[in-house]
Specification:
Deoxyribonuclease I, Chain A, six-stranded mixed sheet, 24% strand, 254 residues, alpha+beta
């Protein structure tokens, strides 16, 4: 199962890039964040992406917004797309297919309302725990707006601030503790330049001075010795690069 996630920072501005990317990669699951478009503003070529069941959620007045696209060839008939109760500002969409729960998430940045971010993370962690307890296998992808550990921030940018704070990181670890794997770090555990977001100035992207904020968090039952995950710094014009993971097609007992 090929799972791809990308914070596109405006789907109307980059829809041709996204279409080309999907056509090239042919993921089974496509998760997009910060689409900044209501469903009726999404360019028609994306609304009718051949071979995919698509759901566009948000975004309000050019803000936030997520999308989830499932390949019909892989998953069959269109699933029901839903939004967990903790959804704020069009930030999460999920679909259940058998024992799999697939989702695209855009966690609040927290710069303007840190308590709201912490509440979102707290409720997301509890939700993941409920799914795990009922035997569901979650794959949640997107912009978590948290650099999980110090290694996930370039050394010159490391400091205690929103996105790197101990309380956020603690909640992230509690979330992963519900049988989930940070696939990117699992595949590349010691890479201290594994970034997915770069400030859009001073050639930060070209110099790879950034943060790792975009993740594929997958049920451990979908992760085996063949798992593969890559972050692409050289794709697209968003300030985030896409992340693509290859997981097991079906969960196994672990």
């Amino acid at each position: 199962m090929k799972v791809a996630t990308w914070n596109v920072n405006g789907i109307r501005k980059r829809f041709t890039e996204v279409i080309s990317w999907i056509d090239r990669e042919e993921p089974d699951v496509v998760c997009l964040q910060e689409t900044k478009a209501s469903p009726d503003q999404v360019p028609e070529p994306l609304c009718s992406t051949a071979g995919y069941h698509c759901h566009w959620h948000g975004g309000m007045k050019g803000y936030s917004g997520v999308a989830l696209m499932l390949r019909g060839k892989t998953f069959g008939d269109a699933p029901t797309f839903v939004h967990p109760p903790f959804d704020l500002e069009n930030r999460i969409v999920v679909a259940e297919v058998g024992s799999l729960v697939l989702g695209s998430v855009y966690v609040p940045n927290g710069g303007k309302d840190f308590p709201a971010k912490m509440q979102f993370l707290t409720e997301m962690e509890a939700w993941a725990g409920e799914l795990h307890a009922t035997g569901k296998h979650l794959v949640l992808c997107g912009d978590f707006n948290v650099a999980r550990t110090p290694i996930d921030v370039h050394p010159v940018l490391r400091k205690e601030m929103i996105g790197q704070s101990p309380p956020e990181r603690a909640l992230f670890e509690k979330f992963l503790a519900h049988g989930l794997v940070d696939v990117g770090r699992h595949v590349d555990p010691d890479n201290d330049r594994l970034f997915t977001w770069w400030a859009p100035w001073r050639n930060m992207r070209q110099r790879n001075i950034g943060w790792r904020l975009d993740y594929v968090a997958a049920s451990r039952a979908l992760v085996d010795e063949t798992v593969h995950c890559v972050a692409y710094r050289d794709v697209g014009t968003s300030d985030h690069g896409p992340v693509i993971a290859h997981l097991r097609d079906a969960p196994v007992t672990v």
